[in-house]
Specification:
This protein is mainly beta and about 375 residues long. Helix content is about 10%, strand content about 50%. A hairpin with a 2-residue loop joins strand 17 and strand 18.
Length: about 375
């Protein structure tokens, strides 16, 4: 059963990178899978975002898969191995479609494609080839799949269009759990030209205290972990430059500003004094120290976001614009967010930093 469940997971998953996206069609249907002459039947339910496929066994136990296209996560469960949570797509997976004609399947006009997929699973490169049939009258829903050697065939039967009852789409529990730390869907960049709102837990790569905050970053900025250095937000090409060496951040040559979020190694928040504190004393004593260290045009602005204290610091050091935000976390080390401009920085960077500061809000 575990083998057939895994096969079902692979064969009934949504389109991989390089394929046209899975349609946002709400439906339910029977899933008939034939593998080397043996047939199993399952039931699939989808609201266009969540999809649940479940097989009931004669012993009363169940096995199946659950996917959430917004979270880009999948769960695969069955007797003997519990529930496995994983990305909806293996990292680095690629897929290519080739048109292979048009056919009618169970009364539905379909477009047939040859699909070649590659991924690294368990450290081993794997390639698979299959044929899929997409129903033109069902938003290109895949209603039939067949492996290249014909040993495995999956068909959707008795398709009913419309959103299934919510209880049929319920998250499988027990035995599955939703591990929010594995939800990295918001790390990916989106189309340029605007801004996107992310939770602090995402902006910190889920490595820091999940403060109840949201913030705004350019829509085409990616969020990328930097190992022990913390978390970075920026254009994909810039982040590749910044993080090209492990445990080193190199900002030379970036084309746009980059944000850097991590735990401060020198500053904490004192909830009794209601001040940020480091080796130079409380934050109301920092100005003279920062000036001696070369920071000019210093502006320090305390602000409370909800119940969370913050301290904004701006200035110029050797002609380079400096942007810093401390966030207080009880009496623990503070969280520090820097914005590093491309070049020396200018009015556009002032505006970008101010937009970020203004976007900080309490999560709802």
């Amino acid at each position: 059963m575990r083998t057939s469940t895994a096969l079902l997971f692979l064969l009934c998953s949504a389109a991989a990178p390089g394929q046209s996206p899975e349609p946002t069609l709400a439906y339910q249907a029977d899933v008939v899978t034939t593998y080397k002459g043996q047939t199993t039947r399952s039931r699939v339910y989808s609201d266009g975002i969540r999809r649940k496929t479940e097989t009931s066994r004669q012993d009363g136990q169940s096995a199946g898969t659950y996917t959430d296209s917004q979270k880009k996560l999948s769960w695969n469960w069955g007797p003997g191995y519990g529930c496995l949570q994983m990305p909806q797509r293996p990292a680095g997976a690629t897929s290519n479609e080739e048109a292979a004609g048009m056919e009618t399947v169970d009364g539905h006009p379909t477009k047939k494609f040859k699909v070649t997929s590659s991924a690294t699973v368990g450290g081993k490169p794997m390639t698979s080839v299959e044929y899929v049939w997409k129903a033109a009258d069902l938003q290109d829903l895949v209603i039939q799949r067949k492996s290249e050697d014909g040993s495995t065939v999956v068909n959707l039967k008795n398709i009913v269009v419309g959103k299934p009852d919510e209880k049929l789409l319920a998250f499988p529990s027990p035995p599955c759990k939703d591990d929010e730390a594995l939800d990295t869907a918001r790390n990916a960049s989106e189309a340029p030209g605007g801004f996107r709102t992310v939770r602090f837990s995402d902006a910190s790569c889920k490595k820091l205290v999940p403060l109840p905050l949201t913030l705004s970053i350019p829509s085409d900025y990616e969020i990328r972990p930097g190992g022990r250095m913390g978390c970075f937000w920026g254009a994909t090409e810039d982040l590749s430059r910044v993080l090209k060496v492990t445990d080193q951040a190199d900002f030379e040559g970036i084309k746009r500003g980059v944000y850097w979020c991590r735990v401060s190694n020198s500053t904490e928040y004192d909830p009794t004094k209601k001040r940020f504190v480091n080796e130079h004393g409380t934050d109301d004593q920092w100005t003279s120290t920062l000036a001696r260290e070369g920071l000019q045009n210093i502006v320090m602005t305390p602000k409370t976001v909800g119940s969370i204290p913050t301290l904004q610091i701006q200035g110029t050091m050797k002609g380079l614009k400096v942007y810093m935000l401390y966030i207080g976390v009880g009496d623990s080390p503070a969280i520090l967010i820097n914005y590093r401009p491309a070049g020396k920085g200018g009015a556009a960077d002032d505006a970008a930093w101010q937009h970020f500061l203004d976007s900080l809000d309490t999560a709802r």
